[in-house]
Amino acid sequence: MNVRDAAVTTLMKIGQGGAFSTITVHQMLEKRAISASDVGLFTELVYGTLSRELTLDYILEPYLAKQKKLDPFMRPLLRMSVYQLFYLDRVPDHAVIHEAVEIAKKRGKVHVSKVVNGVLRNVLRAGMPHFAEIEPAAKRISIETSHPQWLVERWIELFGPEETLQICQLNNTPAPVTVRINRTKTTREEAIELLLDQGVTAKPSTVAPDGLEIERGSVQKTDLIDRGYLSLQDESSMLVARALGAEASDHVLDSCAAPGGKAMHIAEGLTTGTLQALDLHPHKIKLIEQQATRLGLTTVRAEALDARKAGERFEVESFDRILVDAPCSGLGVIRRKPDIKWTKRPEQLEQLPKIQRDILTSVLPLVKKGGIFVYSTCTIDPTENEEQTAFILDQGFDFDASFAERMPESVRHLIGDRAELKLLPTTVGTDGFYIAAFKKRED
Prior knowledge:
The protein is α/β, with parallel strands linked by helices. The protein has helices at residues 3-17, 21-30, 39-51, 53-64, 74-87, 93-107, 110-126, 137-145, 149-159, 161-171, 188-197, 235-244, 261-267, 282-295, 310-313, 340-343, 348-363, 386-393, 403-406, 409-412, 425-428, and strands spanning 178-181, 201-204, 211-216, 230-232, 251-254, 274-279, 300-304, 319-325, 367-377, 397-399, 420-423, 433-440.
């Protein structure tokens, strides 16, 4: 299949059906409709266009104002083509326009291809607009970096305009591909050699001790994930198991475990202990079980259960350590999932903390006295992080003084008296993440 045609189809599915970008891209790649040499360009076209959607529409708008109606494929095609014209330099401008016209001919009528041709040539002739003239700052950052204005305004209030601009700009750059090694099967050094044998170059990641960063090649094309040597995971996410610090014999609860990356990382360190993994959705429990089988882990017990009902299912003080990786807005992972910024709404930032609070209320009594509790999210919003931490401290917990000792040196300097780690996407180059560790009082 033509890679640009496939990208347009994928963008249409994401835009029209509300499908998640990562799932839709994965499904297209699974069909093997894209040649191996075009996988990089395909993902770049999809994620790049999604990331720049607002900016691309701003550029296109003057040339589409007189169009009464666009065929469904036209806007994704025009966005993708303008993205290539202004943000990619690997394809000549005339080739971008030619490809767009050919796709329009194939999908539409002759007059549609003429519209596409005319719009793109006018856009190219006019060049990139001058965003500096847009006022106020929130609107300018919103349009120039393609983020919803309400979100930019919120971040300016929280982090200031300079940090907000940097976060937004970073969200539009490709995230590094990182994998976690399964230490029950391999070491970082051996995994690098095994990858090299299959044409993939990797190096030790800089933040997480169990991580590798892929420098060249596709790790998905090797057999090392299927064989359980490696798992795709961001470095910040890899820090959660280390924050929990489970002993080999501990009885551990991961109350919101799917898709299972952190749960498996914890289970890889257990020998005689157990990892009880819960998730609301039964089909996701199958994913967790498949992950455990793939990684060769026998200590995982997966069960479909709403974490808000965990208190009805398990005895009080029955777990040595508990992780709540809470359902959250995901505003720290926009770089990997650009559609998040278009699907989230301000009102969700009010609803999610209520769900998080209900989960905490149910789960916190299950921690043994003297046991460890870790709360984490992949968002950077205080209402989902620090405000929940304040609640946990009121429920008979203190910050865990040994937290910093368990964390790698790469982030230890970011941890103060409070046993919490706050990572903006700009902090160390990982996803935005929040991790806090607590110890239950024994009195």
